[in-house]
Each structure stands twice: as C-alpha cells, then as structure tokens.
Design goal:
121 residues; alpha+beta; 2 domains; three-stranded antiparallel sheet; two-stranded antiparallel ribbon; elongated; binds zinc ion
Amino acid sequence: MIFLYASIVIILFGFFIVKSQKNQHQSQTGICSICDKSFPDSELQMDETLSFCPEHFKVYNESNWIISKSVECSVGNEKESVELYEQKLKNFQNSQLGFLKTSYKEVNGEIITTLDYYIQK
Ligand SMILES: [Zn+2]
C-alpha cells in the first residue's frame, strides 16, 4: 500500500516537472509583427518593440513604411483597435504586408497611446 502511494506521488511529481518545462518552452516563443505566426525567440529579430521572423525582418529592412491608419487607444475605443488588427490580418492574406506599432505622444500633459498601422510604400 505504501509502495502504491509512493508511486502515485512520484508520477504526480513527474507530471508537474514535465508541465512546468512545457510552460517554460512556451514562453520562449514570440510572434512575428507581420505574419503573426509563432516562432522561437532564437529565430526572431527585434527592432524596438517589434519582432520579426527571419523572412519578414528582411522585408522590414528593405521596405519603406508609411502609416496607413492610426487609431487612438482609449477606454471605450477598443473596437477600432480590434478592427485595425483584423484589417491587417485580412490585408496580409491578400499579400499586403504591414505591421502595427504602438506609439505615445503627450497632448496637454496627457499621454495618448496610438496604434499605427504601417504598410509598404
Ligand atoms: Zn513573419
């Protein structure tokens, strides 16, 4: 009986270790700002707050980007941000590459957060 109890404890403990390792593994991935696919951190290239997969980092560096649309992120305005994100995903499927970048500006002492949608010029 004691042996059975010990076995269960060992199995549970083993399960716990496997689970925590899996979580660690998951946290070592990031998302490409252009294609929104998940990549291991070791493959992603960073530029300020943006991360790119190898293919799109090249595109990012070789392209001129212009802001196509800006949305102010404020309480009650979440819908517009979501719509901008959905538009970006849709455009990506139609081979129009772009990325979203958050910027901050101060207006009358207030910090305004803006979500800018960049597309290739
Ligand atoms: Zn990508």
